[in-house]
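Page 37, continued from 36.
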C-alpha cells in the first residue's frame, strides 16, 4: 500500500527530462557527454585501452545477435547490409592489422569477423524468410564508394606500401558509416525489438569510447595530436571527424534506447520521421 504511486529516481529523472525544452535537452546531453569524458580521462590512464574495450563491446553486441538468431529463429529488425559492410571493413582491417600491428586488436577483429560472417550466413540462408529485405533498402554503394574515394586521397603517411595505407583508411571510413543501413531499417520499422536494440546500443557505446580516445588525445596535446608528424596533416583530422560522425549517427538512437530502458519498456519506439 505504502509503495503505491512510488517512482524510482530514474523514472523521476526521465519524467523531468521529458518536460524540458529541446535546447535544454541538447545542453543536458552535452553535459552528460563531457562528464563521461572527464570520468574516463581520470579513471583510465592508458587511453589506448578504449579501442580494445570498444572492439570487445562490438563483439558482445554480436553475441547478443547470435543468441537471438539461435533461440528466436528470426532475423527481423536486422540489416543484412550493415552486417555485410561490417564484414568488409573487418576483413580489410584484419589484413592491415596483421601486417602493421599483430596484437590484441588483430585477435579481436578475427573473432568479430567470424561472428559477423556467421550472422550473415544465418540471415541469408537459414532465416531468410524473416529478413525484412524491403525495409533494408539503403544501397551499399552509398557507403562503399565515398569511403573508397576518400581513402584514395586521405590516408596515413607511414612507411607501409601505398595500397595498405589506403586500405587502412578505407576500413576506418567504412566503419564510420556501416551502421547507416541498420538505422535506415529501424527508421522504416520504428518499433525495435530488444535484441536488435541491444546490438545497436552496443555499437553506440563502442563508438563513444573510440571517439573519447581521440578527444582526450587532442586535449592532452593541446591540439598537436591532430597534426602528428609522420601521419599526414589530413589523416588524423579526418579519422577524428569520422569517429565524431559515427558517434552522432548513433547518439539519437542511444537516447531513445536509454529512454525506453528507464521507462521499463523492452521495445524501443522511434519517432515518426518528419
Amino acid at each position: 500500500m505504502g509503495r503505491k504511486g512510488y517512482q524510482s529516481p530514474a523514472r523521476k529523472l526521465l519524467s523531468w527530462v521529458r518536460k524540458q525544452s529541446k535546447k535544454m535537452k541538447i545542453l543536458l546531453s552535452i553535459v552528460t557527454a563531457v562528464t563521461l569524458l572527464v570520468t574516463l580521462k581520470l579513471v583510465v590512464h592508458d587511453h589506448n585501452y578504449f579501442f580494445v574495450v570498444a572492439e570487445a563491446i562490438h563483439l558482445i553486441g554480436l553475441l547478443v545477435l547470435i543468441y537471438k538468431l539461435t533461440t528466436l529463429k528470426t532475423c527481423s529488425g536486422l540489416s543484412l547490409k550493415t552486417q555485410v559492410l561490417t564484414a568488409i571493413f573487418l576483413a580489410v582491417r584484419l589484413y592491415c592489422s596483421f601486417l602493421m600491428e599483430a596484437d590484441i586488436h588483430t585477435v579481436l577483429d578475427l573473432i568479430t569477423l567470424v561472428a559477423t560472417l556467421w550472422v550473415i550466413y544465418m540471415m541469408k540462408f537459414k532465416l531468410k524468410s524473416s529478413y525484412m529485405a524491403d525495409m533494408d533498402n539503403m544501397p551499399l554503394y552509398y557507403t562503399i564508394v565515398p569511403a573508397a574515394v576518400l581513402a584514395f586521397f586521405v590516408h596515413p603517411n607511414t612507411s607501409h606500401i601505398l595500397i595498405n595505407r589506403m586500405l587502412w583508411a578505407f576500413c576506418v571510413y567504412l566503419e564510420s558509416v556501416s551502421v547507416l543501413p541498420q538505422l535506415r531499417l529501424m527508421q522504416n520499422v520504428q518499433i525495435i525489438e530488444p535484441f536488435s536494440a541491444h546490438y545497436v546500443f552496443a555499437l553506440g557505446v563502442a563508438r563513444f569510447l573510440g571517439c573519447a580516445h581521440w578527444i582526450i588525445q587532442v586535449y592532452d596535446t593541446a591540439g598537436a595530436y591532430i597534426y602528428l608528424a609522420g601521419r599526414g596533416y589530413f589523416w588524423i583530422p579526418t579519422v577524428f571527424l569520422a569517429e565524431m560522425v559515427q558517434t552522432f549517427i548513433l547518439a539519437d538512437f542511444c537516447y531513445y534506447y536509454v529512454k525506453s530502458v528507464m521507462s521499463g519498456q523492452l521495445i524501443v519506439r522511434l519517432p515518426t520521421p518528419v
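The first helix runs from residue 9 to 18. Flag for discussion at group meeting. The two ends are 44 Å apart (CA to CA).
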